[in-house]
Amino acid sequence: MPFNKLHVPHDLPAETCRAINAQLHESLVETCGVSAQDDFSLVCRYAAGDMMLHPTFLGERDPARTVVIEIALLAGRTDEQKEALYKDVRRRLRAIGFKPENSIVFLVENTPIDWSFSEAGSVKTALGL
Questions:
Q1: I need a surface site. Which of 19, 23, 46, 128 has the fewest CB within 10 A?
Q2: Cα separation, 69 vs 24, whole angstroms
Q3: What percentage of residues in the chain have a pLDDT greater than 90?
Q4: Inter-residue contact 45 to 8 (CB < 8 Å)
């Protein structure tokens, strides 16, 4: 059950944000075995000048146009699945007209005890894991 945070420039159109998230979700389903129903995302906008990163670290990018894709998900994916995800996400970004070099993707892994969706408590407790 991933939760995606898209850190995007303030002026990036909402339609583009939705397209990025849709492609990200499909990639997670295909490469990491995520359930198609586990689609949670939050768009966090930043003002011009608020993205501070080296413009050439491990590739050229435009800091003012860069999208940071933060994915929190349950641990357990292999390195191969993660590499496939990164490659597939960038392929999909290119396909929707977004420059993949202006993206940074990172994962934050956790366990069922780290999630809660209701008064039942953690996912671990709610599902009896």
A1: 128
A2: 9
A3: 71
A4: yes
Would you list the domain boundaries of the chain? Answer: 3-126
Neighbours of 119 (CB within 10 A): 6
Q: Which of 22, 127, 32 is nearest to 77 (CA)?
A: 32
| DSSP run (H or E) holding 44 | strand 41-46
Q: Which CATH architecture has domain 3-126?
A: 2-Layer Sandwich (3.30)
For the stretch 27-69, pLDDT in tens is 999 999 999 999 999 999 999 788 888 878 888 888 888 999 9
* d(C-alpha 15, C-alpha 8), whole Å: 12
